[in-house]
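Thread title: Can someone regenerate the structure for this chain?

I was given the following input by a collaborator and told the matching structure tokens would be attached. They weren't. Posting the sequence so someone can regenerate them.
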Amino acid sequence: MARLDFALWDAVGGYSQKDEVMADVYDEHIRLAQEVEQAGWHSYFVIEHQNSPVGRITAPSVYLTAVARATSVLRIGAMMWQLPFYHPIRLAQEIAMLDHLSRGRVEFGTGIGVHEHEFIRWGMDFYQRAAIAGEVMEIVKRAWTASEVTFEGKYFKFDEALPQPKPFQQPHPPIWAAVHSEAAIEFAARNNYHVAQNLDTDEAVARKFDLYRKTWRECGHPGPMPRVFLMRQVHVAETDEKAHEEARRFIASREGGAVPVGGGPIERTRIGWGTNARGMGRDGERPHDKERGEAIFRAVQNYEFNIESGLALVGSPETVIRRLEEGQKRIGYNIFCCNHEIGQMPPDLVSNSIRLFGKEVVPAFR
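Best answer:
Regenerated them for you:
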């Protein structure tokens, strides 16, 4: 069996009750990071969201510093830090400090964001986010590798900035690109970044990762090839029947599922999801975004579609191991990231799923 590393994607109490004390929620999830470290998982990831009803991680570097000090070998990161929202020198310094405080365990996940309303609420141009992120990334890499940063771009200007410290990992932490479009995939390949995906069907992901590998080889980069990361909803129980019975109530469920784009508390605000109910403004009409949007719409309506398309991995440990092997061969990922906290699934079911995955599935791929 080919080696496969496992990451936990932690929503950090995204659906916690409003009256819960966030200090308690954070402590609970730091303990979870310690548990998965002890069970042999490779890494632990959170995601940044601003202006979101599930936005418990609005400052990833702060939270991950606490995780770093409570663990010793677990690699940590955000998938992703939303680059357009950051002052690039400060971001570079924050990540470098986190890298030292973890003694070189940071995985730097980058992305531009997809929800228009998050930008509107901060007075930012949603349609300039890719260009802004490009400048941020260029400056961050300079701040990590050069003695000074002098830069004049469209969005940022620095005159002999002196960023400190440099990262613990040399020349810098691994850089990940969270991608969806073919242009973003080719950008990641040209820049020799590791690549991450989550919301497309297995068929679409396989096609996009093939494009990534083809483009990477054409660029003539020295090896080894960067890593490939796929995140999925995962639910494990003692039997297939039990796993599906438990998961069905929270996958493709309006009552127990995740907050739907276009609905939920955001819909009831004055700005809502922005200029388009699908949440992506006019970008939602781009072909690759329409394809993904159609898949997500089907996933919300149909439980079986989630299972058949690979958007969710549900079953006994034996079934999950078999499906992961099949996915490795078809898609070629070498880090599989599990989201066990599916919608409003009760904590006891989530905990049992994580426990079974760590006890039965993780060791099978060592």
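Residues 5-365 form a domain with the TIM Barrel fold (CATH 3.20.20.30).
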